Amino acid sequence: MALTLGWLSALAAGVFSAHVLQKLCFPYFWRDLIFLLRVIRYGVRLELFKLTSSVCTVLDRFIQQAQRVPNKPFVIYEGSVHTYRDIDQRSNRLANVFLEKVHLRKGDCVALLMSNEPDFLCVWFGLAKIGCSVAFLNINIKSKSLLHCFNCCGAKTVIIGSDLVDSLDGILTGLVEDNIQVWTMKSHSEHTQVHTLLDKLDAASDKPVPAALRATTSVKAATLYIFTSGTTGLPKAAVITHLQSLKAAAGFWAFGATEDEVIYIPLPLYHSAASMIGIGGTIHLGATCVLKKKFSASQFWNDCRTHHVTIFQYIGELCRYLCNQPKTEVDKVHKVRMGVGNGLRQDVWREFHSRFGNIKMCEVYGSTEGNLCFMNHIGKIGTVGRSNFFYRLLFKYDLVKYDMVKDEPVRDQYGFCQRVEKGGTGLLLSKVSILSPFFGYAGSKQLTEKKLMRNVFAKGDAYFNTGDLMAEDQEGFICFRDRVGDTFRWKGENVATTEVTETLGLVDFIQEVNVYGVEIPGHEGRAGMAAMIIRPDHKFDGKKLFEHAMRDLPAYARPLFIRLQEVMEMTSTFKQQKFQLVQSGFNPSAISDPLFVLDYQQKSYIPLTDLIYQSIITGERKL
């Protein structure tokens, strides 16, 4: 008996010691394991699709949900509720119109130019039901860029939202000359060359079109074309396959979401975050989404309270906009428990938690066209993802040394890249393989090849170049540092714009800040400059900003110039525009915005006059 008790005591002590050791050395073990098992389970399902050549697409999943929960709200839009059955039947009607009146056929590519509204989904699903691939067009692009988008994906038909017909002014003739037929979601059209769809819907059948039209045997078949919103150059059409769509649709589920969620989608549907993760994720769960035509910071929390939202999507500066809203007594009165998105800076993250409660923010890292995804399932502030030994077995990625001066990866004597040490910052590369394919861009082999790096660690290998500088700490958390090109070099040091932005964002009178580098004749590298918006009821304080910069930033990272703006230019996905700011430089005679310059003698940022500007250009003034 005593021997048995001793053995049990020893076993209990061993188990307890192992538990303590796990908590101390591997604190995220169980959460990592559970998350990874979910990912592997879903990955096996996708692999089975490949082996059986029988793919259950996102659209197939939607049709299943429409049969399973037909009366459940699928989309809530401007107070109106659209059930799964409603969207299914209306998309059936459109599918029949597309076949009989528009004369579309399986395999055609159709461009879609629509704002956020339920009919965006009905048109998208209707086209997919007859086997067409759909190119989502950015509603903000005009003329030359718009024509370029048609050429990229080979679309010969475009369907336009009723509120966007006027955006065709100036290019309608060009579209007709290129034999592109134009249809709009209206009953009547003032343009003789624009055909109407709504007047044909009532007479159309809501019976399903043959399932064979939408069927596919390959997860690698293209289903969408989504245009990247780069800050310079013409948009690129990323090829989106069923494989990518299915992976994105599992995002909410992987974070632990269920069919009881109400998901708030304020982002544009023509980008992958809202369409693939937001709508796709809602469908995968069989949940409900609240769709906004356009993000509104003032309406956000009222919408969340009204519709009992549990999860919201964010991107870029959206959370900062919410933090900039006037404080209320009901800031923490809501049911939101999770946010899913990317681009949330540490300072905003902490302020958001303090203001609105401990909402779990799940960062997702990955570009529309990329072959790698990180997911911060732990919710650790300031990190975009989490890696470990098992993750590295499944997804081959590396951080390599990058030369900021030459603007290229560092290569050794044999021409191969060099990995950075743990904790170091490097360029993120993802190996192209069967498990992680790269499908590239439509209509341009040159652009596709440009995103690849070859002979990285061995002859013949190929890696997708993310263009992002990242770091991975000792615990496996991955942090975003900067975009290649955004980071600049000054005084022989690399200046990461995101770090400077976060530091300046702590100054009480600054509402928003955008950091970049400008060239100065006679100086190597680029000098730091910060465009900023001042908070309402506050004034720019050059002395306070000087003291803050002196205290919290190294000498080389302190902005030499400040530019005050009333409005910060953004891309459609709330990314700050830097290109135009960099190009315009710091010449006070060419810029109407107030400019300031760092002055160590006066211990302040003082107005940048023409006289001071000339002294900088001629080299008289020391920088």
From TrEMBL:
Catalytic activity: a very long-chain fatty acid + ATP + CoA = a very long-chain fatty acyl-CoA + AMP + diphosphate; a long-chain fatty acid + ATP + CoA = a long-chain fatty acyl-CoA + AMP + diphosphate; tetracosanoate + ATP + CoA = tetracosanoyl-CoA + AMP + diphosphate
Alphabetical UniProt keywords: Cell membrane, Fatty acid metabolism, Ligase, Lipid metabolism, Lipid transport, Membrane, Nucleotide-binding, Signal, Transmembrane, Transmembrane helix, Transport
Membrane topology type: Multi-pass membrane protein
Signal peptide: 1-17
EC class of the enzyme, as a word: ligase
AMP-dependent synthetase/ligase domain segment(s): 64-387
Keyword Mitochondrion among record annotations: no
Family annotation (InterPro entries): AMP-bd_C_sf (IPR045851), AMP-binding_CS (IPR020845), AMP-dep_synth/lig_dom (IPR000873), ANL_N_sf (IPR042099)
GO BP terms, alphabetized: long-chain fatty acid import into cell
Gene Ontology cellular-component terms listed: endoplasmic reticulum membrane; plasma membrane
GO molecular function: long-chain fatty acid transmembrane transporter activity; long-chain fatty acid-CoA ligase activity; nucleotide binding
Keyword check for Ligase: yes
Gene3D superfamilies: 3.30.300.30, N-terminal domain of ligase-like
Any single Pfam family the record assigns to this protein: AMP-binding
Cellular location(s): Cell membrane
Protein name, as recorded: long-chain-fatty-acid--CoA ligase
Species of provenance: Stegastes partitus (bicolor damselfish)
